Amino acid sequence: MSGRLITESPGQDLAGRRRASRNTLRAQFALVIFLLAFLPNLVLTLTAQSTLPAGALMGWMLLVGVLCGMVGYVLSGALLRPLSRLQTEVEGGELRAHTDDPAEILRLRRAFSDLLARLGTEQTRRNAFMATLVHDLKTPLVAAGHLTHALVHLPLPEAERREVGAQMGAETARLLALVQQMADAHRFEREDVTVQSAPTDLRALIDGVARRLQPQAEWGGLELTVDGSGHAPADAPVLERAVTNLTENALRYARSRVELRVTPSGLVVADDGPGLGGSLAQLAQPFTSQPTTIAGQQYTAGTAGLGLFIARRIAEAHGGGLHYSHQPHELSSQDPASPPPASTLPTVFTLTLPEVTP
């Protein structure tokens, strides 16, 4: 079956432009003003005892109609001048304040200004994120390329060949993890996270996360500990992904120690790092992964923003939330009557869950 290109004839295009010109706010305003001015004159003329000939009377009504139409056209243009000015400024992308604007136009101008500001911020964030993504993808790809070249072209002993193969596997896993986070962020940004809850051993869940990330902790010279116990209805694989994201972020910024803990309110990931460079509401977004300065130290771009966003969405899907605090805890200064802190470490992320039982 062949396709056909449907085009409009010049007559159809002209008719469409005429319909559009009639269906404008100025045309409607002009018609209303014309009717308000012309109909009373028509009623008075018809009801008056006039001795004028019919032709003169029709000429007079025609003149009144033309004058009413002109008045309607001029007044409608004056009424809509602020709106036309706003349209021109929006098309130019630059809004300016005008003291003679009506209150409705001022509110509309503020709404457009806020919208343009949000669009500009979103575009800046996405541009920065794309630059970060290219960097994060390029690094393991270049490393894998060098390793492949060494594996193919260099006469390596068997032990070194196995080590190169292991490094290639690590770089591939890093790429897959980044791609998975991108896919998760894209899905979680556009649709609700669905979970299938079942009784879950929270201590076993964080034990599994700690075992998988222990090599990363040892490579960075960090201590990774696990504490607490409890059960809660949860989707274990999905919840484990959130805890893994939080733990990887903690291992990236911690100075010496990272702690995973089960508490009566949920799961806690704490570290002794400098904390976030902004509020959780700012950073737990899918397109904020960019270089930042935290506690006076420059940190490279990574996938921290993606990880926090995914963890927050997963927590919300379980009926809880993601909370952040950065406050040094001194055990000696704690009031004995107050509840113990979630962690003695300064940077604490709490993934709250309902119905946590011992």
Automatic annotation (TrEMBL):
Membrane topology of this protein: Multi-pass membrane protein
Entry's EC annotation: 2.7.13.3
The organism's place on the tree of life at top rank: Bacteria
Domain Histidine kinase span(s) in chain numbering: 132-357
Keyword Transmembrane helix assigned: yes
Catalysed reaction equations from the record: ATP + protein L-histidine = ADP + protein N-phospho-L-histidine
Spans through the membrane: 27-48, 54-75
Record-given protein name: histidine kinase
Gene source species: Deinococcus radiopugnans ATCC 19172
